[in-house]
Each structure stands twice: as C-alpha cells, then as structure tokens.
Amino acid sequence: MPENGISRGRIADAGYARAGIAYSPRRNGRTPGHNTAFPFIPCGMDWLAMLPGGGAGFTKEEAERAREIRLRPGQRMWALLPDGCRWLGPVLTPEMIAQTARALSGHSLAARQGELAAGFLPLPGGHRLGVCGVMGKEGLKEISSLCLRLAHQIKGVGREVFPRIAHCHTLIVGPPGAGKTTLLRDLIRLYGENGVQVGVADERGEIAACREGAPQLDVGPAADVATGLEKGAAMLLLIRAMAPQVVATDELGGARDARAVREAVQCGVTVLATAHGRSWEDARRRLFGEAGPFERLVILEQPGRPPRVEVLSGEEGSACDG
C-alpha cells in the first residue's frame, strides 16, 4: 500500500468515479480501444490576431485545434491540424515574420535574448515560439523562420494510462509534437483528483502556464508549481519545501536532470517525467547510461495514436510503492 493510503486498485475504481471519468478496466489482458474524442480546450493567448493578416483563412475550429504554425519567407503560413496540414494567408516577407515574432513576444525580443539562446520563447497559455535565424555574440540578429507550437488542454487523454502507471516512476517518451506535455499535464491532474500531492517543476511554464501565481492550464487540485527555475533545482526545492508524493517535470535533457531524478527517487518521491526519444534505449543512453530508476515507460509514437505502456521493472498490474 502506498504511503498516502491510496492503492492502485482504489485509483482505478473509486478515483475515476470521483473524477467523473468513465473508466473501462483492462479485460483479458487487453487495453480498451483508444478514444481520441477528448475535448480540446483553447489555451491562454490570442495568438491568431498576431499572425500576418490577422490569421485570415483560419476557421474558428481550425484555430482552436491547430497544433503548429510555421512561418518562412517566400512561403505562405503552414498550419498543422489534427486532420492534416494547410497553407494559409499571404506569401510572407522577412519583415512580416519579424513583426509576428515581436508581437508574440510581447514586443520584448531584445529583453528576452537569454531565452532565445535556447532557440525558443515560452508564451502565455503554455505555447512555445521556436525561432531560427542568424545568431551573433549579442544574441539573435536576424529571424529567418518561426514555429509556433500550440498547447492544448485535452482532459481525459491520460485516463487509460493512469491506472497502469500510478505510483510508479514513469517516463513518457516520444518525438517533438507527439503530445508528451499534454499527457503529462493530464496525469498530474488525475493524481490530484485522487488525493495525491504533486510538485510540478515547470521550468519554462509550459505545463501549468502560471500567471500571477495561478495556473492557466488545469493541473488538478493538488499541484504546487515551481516556474522559472532549472528543472533539477526546482524538483529538489519542491521536495524540501512542499513535501509532494509525486514530482513531475517536462523534457529531461541531460546528466544534471538525471541526477535530480535519482535524488528525488532516493527521497522516496515518485517521479513522472517526459523526454525526447522513441524508446527506452534512446532515453536511457542519453540520460542514465546503463540503468535508470524508471519502472514504467509510456511511448507516444505520433499524435492521435494510443500511448503504449511498457513495464521496465515489477509486474503489470502490481503497485509500485517506491
């Protein structure tokens, strides 16, 4: 029985009823059919009005469901939608692209050169603006292209995964744009709705998108969010200050993050995290070398396909008590 007194079985049964989720348990060793008809909830900022031409050519539904918008000189805007891609608006000039970057950054590109060194800017609502161009010693000199990655709150996307990973150290892996952060956010929410305290190390503000201390995205009723700190330091601060039962973070990226994960595990806290990759081997080699602390692996191969859960240690259906 986990320390908080909530067993895996109770999470699968009573917890889902409390959360208002129609949970279908596994039958005959099979996971229920994946249902992608979860509600998309638009997030945060009015980015559409900041695009060239005010986003002309988008329907309201397309704007709400768009996953990426790419802007390149000499081309029309390219939009990735759930059912494919579209070219929209006028042919873009370098100045149009630069104006869009200034608008999306809150007209503070010069003041955000430190963030641009990482190649992107976090935006209100959990969105992310990728920036490509000419870099100089003092930062970005010219912008050649933009990639606006749009956050979506998709409640219920984690409902089939949750009972299979609850209380287990879990890593979610997948390529960029596969939905890792969306799934992570929903699992945090489900933990909270089952009475589990979660510390969220949200380095770039893309999980909870806090503004004035309040999350703009739903991370549930039991999440404490630390934003603006390097994720490893944020995880350890949360453990010392907030005594969470689970710590969650996005995009583990190197040895420093791996050390923080190991320290959290040694403190008796369950870790829930994401990383780029297509398999445990990809993530393990980059982060942990020969071994790692994770007990469950969730693989996202591409948007719209069901997550695949692999057991790295323990047995399927058994509780992970840390």
Protein described:
The protein has 322 residues and is α/β, with parallel strands linked by helices. The protein has 2 domains: 8-39 and 155-311, 3-Layer(aba) Sandwich (Rossmann fold); 44-149, Beta-Lactamase (2-Layer Sandwich), CATH 3.30.450. Helix content is 25%, strand content 25%. The chain contains 9 helices and 17 strands. Helix 8 (255-266) links the parallel strand 14 and strand 15. Helix 7 packs parallel to helix 8 (255-266).
Features:
322 residues, Rossmann fold, Beta-Lactamase, 2 domains, disordered N terminus
Write the layout of secondary structure elements.
Elements (H helix, E strand, L loop, with lengths): L7 H11 L21 E2 L18 H6 L2 E4 L5 E5 L2 E5 L5 H11 L8 H4 L3 E3 L5 E9 L2 E11 L3 E2 L7 H4 L4 E5 L5 H14 L4 E5 L7 E2 L2 E2 L7 E5 L3 H12 L3 E7 L2 H12 L3 E7 L3 H8 L8 E4 L8 E4 L11
Parallel strand pairs: 9-15, 9-16, 10-13, 10-14, 14-15
Antiparallel strand pairs: 1-8, 2-3, 2-7, 3-4, 5-6, 6-7, 11-12, 16-17
